[in-house]
Amino acid sequence: MGRVTTRTSSPRTRLSPAQRRAQLLDLGVRLLSTRSLDELSIDVLAEEAGISRGLLYHYFGNKHDFHEAVVRRAADDLIEQTAPPVEGEPLHRLLVSMTAYLDYVDQNHAGYLSLVKAASGGNDTLREIYEEARAALTDRVFREDAQGQIIKETPQTRLLVRAWAAFAEDLVLGWKADPRGVTHDEVLTMLVGSLPALVGVLVPEP
Amino acid sequence: MGRVTTRTSSPRTRLSPAQRRAQLLDLGVRLLSTRSLDELSIDVLAEEAGISRGLLYHYFGNKHDFHEAVVRRAADDLIEQTAPPVEGEPLHRLLVSMTAYLDYVDQNHAGYLSLVKAASGGNDTLREIYEEARAALTDRVFREDAQGQIIKETPQTRLLVRAWAAFAEDLVLGWKADPRGVTHDEVLTMLVGSLPALVGVLVPEP
């Protein structure tokens, strides 16, 4: 296999196949930010990367595997980018994490929407990736708050936090679909305030 | 067209075509409570109703139209069954409505799940019916609370109530999928308490 450069690599360097594949996945995720999964074909990626379709098939097998790899990378990116800081008060860390979540959906709207839609569609693998990402995000709420300062882990709170993730997703996507009359900061206030408020339903203030 | 009786009609009466169609739709919705939309074929309905497939096609055109009619009926049933009482305190009416919602999903789990799944799948008509039902449910929050005792209608609260509906749906379906350790009444407490708690995020208590 000869040396391949994509438009996005600079300066020209010889990459390992694994690095090249990772680079192509990054490009796929970037392309997904402005188009749906259906619109992201091997052809589009080949065109954007400036390499042949044949080589892409070499890296990704077929269209289905390509989509799966891109969605998995997008889910990993989401989890990574919304990671709260290691230090700080739980509520502050929640604020940082939710700010990053809002930014992520803001900047990757089409891609995020297609992840959510793919998850509910017929494809089991994509649904699984989505469920894993969501579980990672909700598990983190408990892991990051191991002392239970905001929320203690119980069957009730697990259910609640999972449903809160659905709330957050719908809130942000609803705002992106029709932002009229609602500011970015107001959405952020709702995102951050909603979790403690919902926990308060289970543990009423004295 | 001759006289037709279904197993569900008793005593034998001559129904108008519209009445017969409505009766078959009722049967379709009942069948949907224990099977997914994919499993609800014209064959199954014909078998259960004790009439010919040909006659069902006469009433419903094709499988797609049949599914659309059943889902629309199921959505109408959901809206109707969860209607809050006309009189009473807003929070009490919310409690009655949420109790009915929980009961509905409890008793029609497979059907409700297939409505939610169909909405996210590729079928535009089914998604539209789902969106209409959800809009009807959230609009009602404002209509039933015209004085804004719980919640005033603003762009922010519209977004919040819509996202709350996603929370409620995920909470109930999550509980149905894995009810271990969480009682019916605890789910109801979360359903009823969540809306005022979320509104409180926008309008902090003095």
Describe the structure.
The structure is a homodimer of 206-residue chains. The first copy, chain A, has 206 residues and is mostly helical. Chain A has 2 domains: 49 residues, Arc Repressor Mutant, subunit A, CATH 1.10.10; 130 residues, Tetracycline Repressor, domain 2. Chain A is 69% helix and 0% strand. The N terminus of chain A is likely disordered.
CATH superfamily of the largest domain in chain A: Tetracycline Repressor, domain 2
The name of the CATH architecture of the largest domain in chain A is Orthogonal Bundle
How far the N terminus sits from the C terminus of chain A, by CA atoms, comes to 69 Å
Tally of domains of chain A? 2
Beta strand count of chain A: 0
Mean residue pLDDT of chain A: 84
The level of helicity of chain A is: 55-70%
CATH fold title of the largest domain in chain A: Tetracycline Repressor, domain 2
Q: Which spans of chain A have pLDDT < 50 for at least 5 consecutive residues?
A: 1-6
Summarize it.
Two copies of one chain form a homodimer. Chain A is mostly helical and 206 residues long.
Write the layout of secondary structure elements.
The structure is a homodimer of 206-residue chains.
Chain A: H1 17-32, H2 42-49, H3 53-60, H4 63-81, H5 90-107, H6 109-120, H7 124-143, H8 155-177, H9 184-202
Helix pairs in contact in A: 1-4, 1-6, 4-7, 5-6, 5-9, 6-7, 7-8, 8-9
Question: What characteristics describe this protein?
Answer:
homodimer; 206 residues; Arc Repressor Mutant, subunit A; Tetracycline Repressor, domain 2; 2 domains
